Amino acid sequence: MERIRITFEKTGAMRYTSHLDMQKVWIRALLRAKLPLAYTQGFHPTPKVAYAWPLPLGWGTEGELMDIWLDNPEEKEVKADSFIRDVNNAMPAGLRILSIEKLPYSDPALTIVIQSAVYQIIFPDYQNTEDLKEKMTELMSQETIERERRGKIYDMKPLIEDWLCGTDDNGEVFMKVQMAARDSAMGRPDELAAALGFDPFAVNITRLKYIL
Question: The whole model's pTM is what?
Answer without folding.
Answer: 0.92
